[in-house]
Amino acid sequence: MDSLGSRIPSAVEESEVSVSIAATSLESAPELSVVMPARNVGAWISEAVTSVLTQTMTSLELIVVDDGSDDDTLEILAGFDDPRLIVTASPASGGGTARNYGVTLARGRYLAFADGDDLVPERAYEALVAQARRTGAEMVVANYVIFSPTTLNDRNQWFPRYGRTREGVVIADEPVFLRDRVCWNRVFLRDSWNAAGIRFADSPRSNDIQAMTDAYCAFAFDVIPETVYMYRRRAGGSSMTARKNAPESILAHFEQELGCLASVTALQDPHVFARYSEHMLNHDVWAHIGPLLDPANVSDPAYDAPRAAMRQFILRTLPAGKRALSPVRRAVYALAEAERWAAAAAIASVEELAEEGVRHDAASVMRHLRSSGLSRSDAAVEALRISLLSPLRRHSMLDDAALESALREARAFARAHVPTRTLSRRERHILATSPSAGALEIRDRIDSAPYWPSAPERMIQHALRDAKAAVGIGDRAMKKVGREAARSTQRASRKLPAPVVRAARKALGRERDA
Where is the Glycosyltransferase 2-like domain (predicted)? Predict the structure, then answer.
């Protein structure tokens, strides 16, 4: 036999060898077992494995479970020479099955999970296990980051629950944690994991959310602020995130959501159920509803099964969660309940425009307006102003090519959706400029455009107009009131003492001279 770092079982002997490796690979059991499923991650597996094996906490084993890779993943793993690395093959396909199999081989007191294309900061497991040792916690969770070639996002920035250390948290006190259901930013006491019977789902998508929901329902847990994981957001067709809009992927997700719902329901805690329903409907479910209500998919039978699964979730959670929803989202979910998918798609499109501040490209805005029946409406005018004319007002920040492109998009959008009479003089002035005139001419044209009130000023004008209409005072009546007020002031001035009148006239004269 070769060293364990290069020992990769064949298809014939994989089961027996996996067990023998787990039983004999180290003289004593490690403190931590890290389970890492891997499938066609040759481009990243070396970095992922290295980040685990170079942890400051050295008493660990890394169990890599190959899920049928047909790239160079196994060859790269064979190049590692570290007795703490165990490489084995999954008995069946699927990331959930691979994780479950890895757990059966684990010998550490604590259990952690990582993916074959991500990174683990070098002090991560030291921090997590130290907290678990100190308090005896059955689960310790911590902050993480999501990165891509161009972005780096800290989870605590938009899920502010990891800012400080807390001990003995239970889900009844903080149901919001049911939204944070990834498996790799935490460690578990392995005996507690096995005693609770927690298993990952055999699902092509979201196979960790039910297992993590079960863990939250079973354990009190500690929270620490350290960043313990770096999740890689991959681009391209090979990534699961790139396939998330496919009907089979969405169906798999909602099947897991229904499993999570069953676990939360079993707690029989109305407070937890209500908060869970609110968070799911406002966040996770809404994040997955887009492809189901996309105008291009509303009539596609391939999406019938995912829509039916989503509807089942909505039927059971909407009564408890609707009070936290915006009127538009409440309407969308109510229409989905009634299986009026085209109507739900139209309303959801309006919500998307409002939610994103209409900051889409012109083609996307046009598509949403057409699908929601808002073409050539006031909404189209505001879409033009917010999405397409705003960059033109900040033209000094655009290079010449970007400026010409922005003007071209704005003109095309205005022609298709916006009646000229609804535009201000300034907007008409800008849109009358031809993109072929050149960037210098466009900039001059924008700078010389008539003044247009800012958004707050327009809001005040609208409010004033509404207030006058509410009390039955039109513009003509307001002018009459103003003239009467001026005459009253003149009459009052005649009754003032002469010295006061003279001083006032002198002050007014100085003001005019100035």
Answer: 33-167
